[in-house]
Every structure is written in C-alpha cells, then in structure tokens.
UniProtKB/TrEMBL annotation:
<comment type="similarity">
    <text>Belongs to the bacterial ring-hydroxylating dioxygenase beta subunit family.</text>
</comment>
<dbReference type="Pfam" id="PF00866">
    <property type="entry name" value="Ring_hydroxyl_B"/>
</dbReference>
<dbReference type="InterPro" id="IPR000391">
    <property type="entry name" value="Rng_hydr_dOase-bsu"/>
</dbReference>
<dbReference type="InterPro" id="IPR032710">
    <property type="entry name" value="NTF2-like_dom_sf"/>
</dbReference>
<keyword id="KW-0560">Oxidoreductase</keyword>
<protein>
    <submittedName>
        <fullName>Aromatic-ring-hydroxylating dioxygenase subunit beta</fullName>
        <ecNumber>1.14.-.-</ecNumber>
    </submittedName>
</protein>
<dbReference type="GO" id="GO:0051213">
    <property type="term" value="F:dioxygenase activity"/>
</dbReference>
<keyword id="KW-0223">Dioxygenase</keyword>
Amino acid sequence: MNLVSPARSAHQDEAETLRLYESFVYREARLMDNHQYDEWFKLWTEDALYWLPCNEEDLDIHKSVSLIYENLEKIEERILRLKGKFAHAQSPKSRLMRIVSNIEIESVSDSEIIGTSCFVLGDVRLDRQNVWFGRNHHTLIRTEDGLKMRKKKVFILNNDSPMANLTFLV
C-alpha cells in the first residue's frame, strides 16, 4: 500500500493559484469599499504602480494622459488625503460596494501572478448614485507576507466620457 501522496498535478497548481488570486482580489475590494486605507496600502510593493488610463485601455503609459498614475509615494499621499479632515470631496465618505467577477489568470511564474477581473462599483454620496464598470489588471508578487501588488491597472469603461471625480479608491 502506497501512503505517499502523488505529485501535484498542473491542474491542482492552476486551481490553487486561481484561488490565491481570487482571494487577494476579493480582499482588496473589501478593503477599498470599507475605507480601510492603511490595510489597502500594505498590499503594495515598494515599486508600486497604480494606473487608470484615459481614453483607451492599451496606451503607452509614458506618452498618454492618465486619470491616475501613481507610484508608492503618491499612493501614500492619496491615502493621507483620504484619511485627513480636509478631503472635502469625500466628506461624508462615499458608500461603496463592488461586485467582482470574471477573474482570470493571464500568466504565472515562481514569483509573480498576473491576472484580470471585472467589477461593478456602486458609489453613493449625498443622495447621488454613480455606477462604475471596469476591469482590473493586477501584477502580484509572492512575498514572505503573502501576495503583494506591484502594479494595478484599472480600465474604467467610460474613461473617454465626462465623469464624476474619482475621489475614492478604484
């Protein structure tokens, strides 16, 4: 009788990677929706890039206008503003609720997971409601502390139309 478990199959590894990625994406959405800024900030690596392109999804990041283009220092400044007393555009804070779906892995290496997901984000503030549709592209790095975001690109479906200010985490 063989008590040694068989080697993991590629399918098991893919399923585990997808589960880890899904868990990360759902946690990030919950932290943003609940305004848990410090916890959300801890999800980033030192070489972070938070990018929301404007007009088209596949643009040259260095030659195009962006809705948001931030490194870790700028992300930290955003968090400080949102937590501060003078974030008038978020006083009172938006009530946020995201539905995340269509989670897929694009590529995997020993150190990195790249994937996408879609979202619908409801934003209610001062009796005004907005609904945002978008797609996230995450580049996640495996660390001793778990997965961390190196890059997050958010494509807002109507990014080429007039829109309300994005004064919350997307």
